[in-house]
C-alpha cells in the first residue's frame, strides 16, 4: 500500500472512530432524559425492545459493511468480479432483512408473550420496519469503505443517531402530553429508529450520486452467470455473522435479559408493576455501561491498526510491544472506570435517574465495564490475526452460561441475580478470548509488578469517595450531583497522580497516546515532586 493510500485510510479510520464515539455517547446520554420523562416502567418498556434495534444497527454498521468492503477490496482491479460480488451480496442482505422483518412482524405477539408482556407486541412491530432499511444502509457503507472513503459512513451514522435521539425524546414527550399510555409513548419513541435510518440512507445516497456524476460508481452485475455467483452469498453471511456476534455482544446480553428478567420475576410472585419497575431500574446500568466503555475501548482500539500493520509486515518485536501496550491501557482505564463507578454509584444514580433506587444492583453490574473492555480489546486483536470465529464462539458460550445462571439466580434474587449472571457470562467470554490469544502469541500479557501498583492506585482512588459517602452523603438530587462530580474529580486525580508517580505506563508507552508528550512531561514532574 502506498504512503498516500495509507494516510487516506488512517484519516478515514479517524473519521469513523470519531463518529462511532459520538454515536455511543448520544446513545447513552439520551436515555437519561428519556428515563426522567417516562419513569422506570416506561424505561423498562423501551429497553425490552431496544436490543432488536441494536441488532439491526450492528448488522447495518458493523458486520455487513465490513465484510462487503473486505470482499470488494480483495477483488480490486477486477471490475467484473466486483459487480458480481455486489449483486450476490445485495441479494443475500435483502433476503435476510425481509426474512427478519416478516418474522418479527408476524410473530410479534408470540415474542412479546415470551418476554412475559403481551403489550410489547406493538413496539416490536414498529421496530421490525428498521430491518427493511438495512440492505441500503449496509450496502452503501460497505461500498464506500471498500474504496477507503469513510466520511460518508461517518456523517450518515452521526446524522442517523441525532435524528433518532430527537424523535425519541419528542415522540415520548408528545405521547405523554396527549395522554397516551407508556406503551404508546414507547412505540412513538421507537419510530425514531425508522426516521433515523431513512435520513442515513438519504445522506449515503447523496454521496453515491456525487460518485456517479464523476463516473466513479459501481453498479451490480445483472448478468452474472450462476456458476460465477456460487458461494459468494454464503461466504459473505458466514463472515458477517462471526463479526456481528462479537460486535453485538452487549446487545445480545440485553436481549437475554429482555426474555428472562421481567418474566422470571413475575413468575416468582413479584407483582407486575413492581417487576416492571425493578427491570427499569436494572436497565439504568446500560447507559452507564456504554459511557464507561467509550473511553477505555476508544483509546485502546486506536492501537489495533498499529497491531495489524506490525503483524502484516512481520515485525514481531513491534507486534508484541503493541499488543502488550493495548492490553495494559485497557486494563488500567477499565479498572479505574469500574472501581470509580462503583464507589460513586449512589450519588451518580440519583443525579442521573432522580432516585438512588437499585444502587446495589448497579454496583454489581459495573464489573461489566472492566470485562467488556478487555473482551473487546482481545477479540479485536484476535480478529487482526484472522481468528474471527473464536470470539464469536466465546460470545455464544457466554450467552448460554448467562441464560443458565439467570434461570438459577433471578427467581430467588431478582435483579441482583441478573447482574451477577451478566458478569459470569462475560467472564467466560474473556477466558476463552484470553486462552486463544495466549496460544496465538506467547508473551506475558500482564506484569505482576504493574498489577500490584494498579491495585494500590485503585484502593487509594476509592478512599476519598467512600469517606464522603460514609461521613457526609448528600440526600437531594442536586446535592448528589455535586457529590458525584467532586468524588469523581478527587478520586480520578488521586489515581492519575499515583499512576504517573509510580509509572503504570512507561516512557515508551506515552509515544502512542494522545497528548503523549504532555503526559510524559507531567509524569516526570510528578516523579520529581
In short:
This protein has 529 residues and is mainly alpha-helical.
Describe this protein's structure:
The protein is an all-alpha fold and 529 residues long. Helices cover 84% and strands 0% of the residues. The chain has helices at 3-29, 31-74, 79-106, 108-114, 121-128, 130-146, 151-177, 182-213, 226-229, 232-247, 249-267, 272-282, 285-301, 304-312, 316-343, 345-353, 359-365, 367-384, 389-413, 415-440, 448-471, 477-501, 507-510, 516-528. The longest helix is centred in the N-terminal third of the chain and has 44 residues, at 31-74. The radius of gyration is 24 Å and the shape is globular. The model has no long low-confidence stretch (mean pLDDT 83).
Could you tell me the strand content as a percent range? Answer: under 5%
Percentage of residues assigned to helices: over 70%
Largest sheet entry: none
**Alpha-carbon Rg, integer:** 24 Å
Gross morphology: globular
- How far is the first residue's CA from the last residue's CA? 47 Å
**Which residue ranges are poorly predicted, with pLDDT under 50 across at least 5 consecutive positions?**
none
Total count of strands: 0
What is the H/E string?
Answer: HHHHHHHHHHHHHHHHHHHHHHHH
Kindly report the average pLDDT value: 83
Helix and strand content put the structural class at: mainly alpha
- Annotation field: number of helices: 24
Amino acid at each position: 500500500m502506498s504512503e498516500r493510500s495509507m494516510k487516506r485510510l488512517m484519516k478515514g479510520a479517524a473519521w469513523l472512530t470519531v463518529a462511532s464515539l459520538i454515536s455511543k455517547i448520544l446513545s447513552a446520554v439520551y436515555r437519561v432524559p428519556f428515563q426522567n420523562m417516562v419513569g422506570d416502567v416506561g424505561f423498562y418498556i423501551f429497553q425490552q425492545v431496544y436490543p432488536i434495534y441494536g441488532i439491526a444497527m450492528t448488522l447495518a454498521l458493523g458486520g455487513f459493511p465490513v465484510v462487503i468492503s473486505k470482499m470488494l477490496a480483495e477483488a480490486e482491479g477486477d471490475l467484473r468480479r466486483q459487480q458480481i460480488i455486489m449483486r450476490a451480496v445485495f441479494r443475500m442482505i435483502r433476503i435476510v432483512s425481509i426474512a427478519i422483518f416478516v418474522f418479527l412482524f408476524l410473530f410479534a405477539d408470540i415474542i412479546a408473550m415470551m418476554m412475559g408482556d403481551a403489550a410489547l407486541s406493538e413496539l416490536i412491530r414498529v421496530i421490525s420496519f428498521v430491518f427493511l432499511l438495512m440492505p441500503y444502509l449496509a450496502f452503501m457503507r460497505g461500498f464506500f469503505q471498500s474504496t477507503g472513503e469513510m466520511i460518508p459512513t461517518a456523517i450518515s451514522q452521526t446524522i442517523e443517531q441525532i435524528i433518532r435521539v430527537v424523535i425519541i425524546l419528542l415522540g415520548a414527550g408528545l405521547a405523554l402530553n396527549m395522554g397516551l399510555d407508556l406503551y404508546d409513548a414507547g412505540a412513538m419513541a421507537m419510530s425514531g429508529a425508522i426516521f433515523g435510518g431513512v435520513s442515513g440512507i438519504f445522506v449515503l445516497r447523496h454521496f453515491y450520486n456525487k460518485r456517479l456524476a464523476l463516473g466513479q460508481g459501481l453498479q451490480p452485475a445483472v448478468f452474472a452467470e450462476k456458476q460465477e455467483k456460487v458461494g459468494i452469498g454464503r461466504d459473505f453471511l458466514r463472515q458477517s455473522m462471526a463479526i456481528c456476534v462479537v460486535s453485538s455482544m452487549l446487545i445480545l446480553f440485553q436481549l437475554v435479559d429482555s426474555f428472562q428478567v421481567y418474566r422470571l420475576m413475575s413468575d416468582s410472585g413479584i407483582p407486575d408493576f413492581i417487576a416492571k419497575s425493578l427491570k427499569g431500574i436494572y436497565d439504568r446500568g446500560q447507559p452507564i455501561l456504554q459511557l464507561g466503555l467509550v473511553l477505555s475501548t476508544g483509546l485502546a482500539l486506536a492501537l489495533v491498526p498499529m497491531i495489524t500493520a506490525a503483524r502484516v509486515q512481520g515485525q514481531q518485536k513491534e507486534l508484541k510491544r503493541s499488543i502488550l501496550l493495548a492490553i495494559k491501557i485497557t486494563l488500567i482505564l477499565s479498572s479505574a472506570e469500574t472501581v470509580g463507578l462503583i464507589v460513586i454509584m449512589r450519588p451518580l444514580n440519583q443525579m442521573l435517574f432522580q432516585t438512588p433506587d437499585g444502587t446495589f444492583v448497579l454496583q454489581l453490574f459495573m464489573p461489566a465495564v472492566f470485562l467488556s473492555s478487555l473482551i473487546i480489546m482481545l477479540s479485536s486483536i484476535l480478529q487482526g490475526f484472522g481468528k474471527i470465529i473464536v470470539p464469536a464462539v466465546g460470545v455464544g458460550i457466554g450467552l448460554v452460561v448467562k441464560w443458565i445462571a439467570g434461570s438459577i439466580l433471578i427467581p430467588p434474587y431478582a435483579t441482583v441475580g441478573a447482574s451477577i449472571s451478566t458478569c459470569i457470562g462475560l467472564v467466560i467470554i474473556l477466558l476463552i478470548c484470553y486462552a486463544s490469544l495466549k496460544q496465538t502469541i506467547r508473551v506475558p500479557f500482564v506484569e505482576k509488578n504493574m498489577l500490584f501498583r494498579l491495585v494500590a492506585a485503585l484502593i487509594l482512588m476509592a478512599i476519598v469517595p467512600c469517606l464522603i459517602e460514609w461521613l457526609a452523603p448528600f440526600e437531594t438530587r442536586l446535592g448528589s450531583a455535586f457529590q458525584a462530580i467532586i468524588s469523581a474529580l478527587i478520586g480520578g486525580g488521586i489515581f492519575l497522580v499515583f499512576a504517573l508517580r509510580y509509572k503504570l505506563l512507561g516512557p515508551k508507552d506515552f509515544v502512542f497516546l494522545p497528548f503523549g508528550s504532555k503526559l510524559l512531561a507531567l509524569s516526570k514532574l510528578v516523579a520529581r515532586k
